Structure to design on (732 residues):
């Protein structure tokens, strides 16, 4: 009387792939970052599903670490984007074209 | 949990505490006299961290519920990481001064990034590895974009951040898949979780690989392992995610670029070495071998051809770091064979140490020849340098020769070690392709040398004031030659003695 | 197994059909007499001034950043609090461990405060 583990894993893989698709097609760094968050949350889903299935708390613990780390990454990322916004008044990845060769 | 545990994790703890202390003292002080005190304090913590690592000695000890394991290899790498941090802090006083960048934060970030790298180096549990790699990477993103007013530095930071966060997610999915596949396999085969170990522990993974038939080739595990290996290699700047490395090294100020290039490689390759020791001799099909060979050869070829016609020297070093990442991966590949494993681990360790010294030195030359803190980035700025500033030209020449692997420099010995290990592992054609790549690389490095010595230039020499970078560059060049001429006498034995195989062969599990 | 989800499926299908039917019926049967005031975004109340899709000052991001960091870190307090009583002989050590964690957060807080991150404008 429960949803099989495979369903969670497949759902998590689908979400993860959607995240990858978002990262590779979007031009706005904020949207790219949202896609990365989607990938991280897909991982969280599979971690919790595995942990529940195995009766092991390790998966949940790792999920908490992932959330904390993601928060730190968001802050640093937004900080960098704000700095770019202040000099360029635009944050699309297309303007990040100064370094080439 | 006892004092021994804290001692084992002492090196990263000291670095992290040092980061906080430096940050707070900088906040409390306003005068420039106390700014010098900040540098002193930061270096003090680096030295304390080195001493703490050294007192651990070479024997294996695990701590924090088997979350970390320290032995000779880890001690060597921790000392190296602390030394890199200290040198970077000394060498970047000039750029911080010229651009009026905040200094306390800079030192704190360097110390915290090193703390993260050390956590990564000593982690036995993949959860610790993840936390360590994130502490390191998040500090890296900020450091890459540290020169805020300059567009190139900002751009480097943003690119590094977006790519790095993306790869972190892939790394994490790899860990999740390994966690799940190990747990499922052990449950299905009625194996007990080793007492005191978690499912994400490398020891547990080793047990699953060596005791569950067919586990090494199960798709869930292979997918997870490939994601883990691939993303760790990105963190070390290996192709195909290499596009970021040259951008970041060109955009970031030279001392920071040197720090990023070396610390990331030391940390990521050490944990990869540990992960590869459990794959050694295991039946994992061909998948992992194919991926590793592919990544290594791609990096060597892309790195060396990309370096060939560069106009920017920092970009050249960026591509060179991609290529050298490829050679180190070749060494890791050799460590997958049970017979060549010991030689391969020694070769890789030696390669990492030598690469760190050479790279720190090369970026120090770029900072040394710069004007007003602005790096001497364009290769045309080096035209005729042999006439204007012979010392600098010779120093840079030594580094370039070492990077290309000419005898009498340390770069030759390291490449030799990797190729020997590879040949004894049976990878002859791989070694041949890698040699062709080196030949292409030789052209790139010799081009800069000929610009320096055989082309005349009317440029005026400007007297540099960056004494710290000069000191770092010259001492690194001396080390490169000394280690290249007296390999066995000077340094190799101590490495061989200090590298003991990590405790993960699977049979040692109680 | 999955058959227990059939009532949910029926419920979703029923809700969708009813909603679509009602919208369709009102579109078919209702009289249509548009006027300027009916077309406005709010049929009564204050007329909106300008678009709501404006750019926010970048300051909001800074505040959001700080909020996220300090908010999410408290997530570690929950598992710690739940397991604290069960830790038995390690109680004192666990308390110290959490105090160290909070002290690290405090360092960050002091830093933000001193650097003026909490000031608006």
């Amino acid at each position: 009387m429960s949803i099989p583990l495979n369903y969670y894993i497949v759902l998590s893989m689908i979400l993860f792939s959607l995240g990858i698709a978002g990262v590779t097609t979007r031009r706005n760094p904020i949207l790219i970052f949202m896609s990365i968050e989607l990938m991280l949350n897909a991982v969280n889903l599979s971690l919790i599903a595995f942990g529940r299935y195995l009766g092991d708390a390790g998966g949940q613990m790792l999920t908490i670490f992932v959330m904390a780390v993601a928060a730190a990454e968001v802050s640093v990322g937004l900080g960098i984007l704000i700095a770019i916004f202040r000099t360029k008044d635009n944050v699309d990845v297309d303007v990040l074209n100064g370094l080439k060769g | 949990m006892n004092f021994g545990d804290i001692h084992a994790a002492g090196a990263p703890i000291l670095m992290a505490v040092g980061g906080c202390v430096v940050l707070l003292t900088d906040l409390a002080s306003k005068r420039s006299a106390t700014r010098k005190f900040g540098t002193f304090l930061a270096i003090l913590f680096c030295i304390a961290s080195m001493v703490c690592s050294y007192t651990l000695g070479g024997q294996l000890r695990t701590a924090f519920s088997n979350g970390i394991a320290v032995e000779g290899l880890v001690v060597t790498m921790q000392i190296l990481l602390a030394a890199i941090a200290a040198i970077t802090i000394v060498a970047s006083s000039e750029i911080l001064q010229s651009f009026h960048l905040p200094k306390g934060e800079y030192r704190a970030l360097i110390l915290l990034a090193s703390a993260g790298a050390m956590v990564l180096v000593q982690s036995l549990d993949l959860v610790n590895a993840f936390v360590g790699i994130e502490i390191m990477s998040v500090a890296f993103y900020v450091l890459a974009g540290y020169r805020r007013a300059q567009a190139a530095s900002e751009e480097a930071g943003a690119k590094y951040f977006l790519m790095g966060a993306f790869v972190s997610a892939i790394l994490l999915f790899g860990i999740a898949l390994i966690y799940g596949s190990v747990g499922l396999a052990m449950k299905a085969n009625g194996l007990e979780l080793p007492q005191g170990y978690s499912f994400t522990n490398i020891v547990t993974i080793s047990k699953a690989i060596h005791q569950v038939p067919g586990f090494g080739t199960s798709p869930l595990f292979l997918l997870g392992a490939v994601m883990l290996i691939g993303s760790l290699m990105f963190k070390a700047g290996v192709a195909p995610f290499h596009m970021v490395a040259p951008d970041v090294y060109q955009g970031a100020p030279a001392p920071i670029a040197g720090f990023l290039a070396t610390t990331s490689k030391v940390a990521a390759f050490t944990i990869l070495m540990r992960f590869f020791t459990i794959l050694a001799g295991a039946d994992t099909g061909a998948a992992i071998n194919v991926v590793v060979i592919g990544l290594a050869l791609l990096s060597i070829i892309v790195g060396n051809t990309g370096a060939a016609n560069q106009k920017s020297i920092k970009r050249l070093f960026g591509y060179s770091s991609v290529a050298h990442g490829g050679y180190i991966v070749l060494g890791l590949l050799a460590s997958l064979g049970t017979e060549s494993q010991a030689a391969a681990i020694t070769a890789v360790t030696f390669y990492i140490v030598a690469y760190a010294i050479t790279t720190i030195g090369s970026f120090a030359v770029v900072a040394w020849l710069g004007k007003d803190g602005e790096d001497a980035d364009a290769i045309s700025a080096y035209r005729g340098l042999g006439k204007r500033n012979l010392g600098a030209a010779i120093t840079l020449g030594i580094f370039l020769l070492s990077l290309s692997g000419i005898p009498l420099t340390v770069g030759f010995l390291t490449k030799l070690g990797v190729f020997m290990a590879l040949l004894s592992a049976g990878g002859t054609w791989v070694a041949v392709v890698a040699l062709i790549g080196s030949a292409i690389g030789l052209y790139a490095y010799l081009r800069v040398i000929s610009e320096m010595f055989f082309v005349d230039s009317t440029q005026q020499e400007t007297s540099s004031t960056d004494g710290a970078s000069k000191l770092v560059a010259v001492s690194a060049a001396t080390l490169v030659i000394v280690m290249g001429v007296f390999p066995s006498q000077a340094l190799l034995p101590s490495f061989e003695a200090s590298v003991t195989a990590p405790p993960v062969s699977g049979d040692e599990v109680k | 197994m999955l058959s227990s989800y059939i009532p949910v499926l029926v419920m979703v299908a029923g809700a969708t059909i009813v909603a679509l039917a009602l919208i369709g019926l009102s579109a078919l049967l209702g009289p249509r007499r548009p006027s300027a005031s009916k077309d406005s975004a709010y049929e009564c109340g204050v007329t909106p001034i300008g678009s709501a899709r404006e750019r926010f000052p970048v300051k909001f991001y800074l505040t959001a950043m700080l909020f996220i960091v300090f908010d999410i870190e408290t997530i570690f307090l929950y598992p710690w609090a739940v397991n604290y009583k069960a830790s038995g002989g390690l109680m004192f050590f666990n308390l110290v461990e959490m105090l160290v964690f909070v002290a690290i957060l405090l360092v960050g807080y002091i830093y933000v405060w001193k650097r003026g991150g909490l000031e608006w404008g």
Summary: The interface with chain C takes residues 1, 20, 23-24, 27 of chain B (CB under 8 Å). The radius of gyration of chain B is 22 Å. Strands of chain B lie at 61-63, 68-70.
